[in-house]
Specification:
Helix content: 10-25%
Strand order of the largest sheet: 3-2-1-4
Number of helices: 1
Number of domains: 1
Distance between the termini: 59 Å
Strand content: 25-35%
Shape: elongated
């Protein structure tokens, strides 16, 4: 195991309209309420982050219901 470098991943921030944000590991897909330095599930080191505005889709669904 010595000499092998752990692969890195990134947190994908999923923003929602009517509930709290979630952070998803780009490597294993596990979701958490808060980001951390390392994914608790797969153990990958997090480098950077990405943003997924899920709330836009949720707002569009609500807009359709009003019509």
């Amino acid at each position: 195991m010595f000499g092998k470098k752990k692969q890195s991943a990134a947190w994908i921030r999923r923003t929602h309209l009517l509930r709290a944000d979630e952070y998803e590991c780009s490597a294993c897909g596990s979701r958490y309420k808060r980001p951390s330095v390392q994914c608790p599930n797969c153990g990958r080191i997090m480098r950077g982050s990405k943003h997924d505005p899920s709330w836009v889709d949720e707002a569009e669904i609500l807009d359709i219901w009003e019509e």
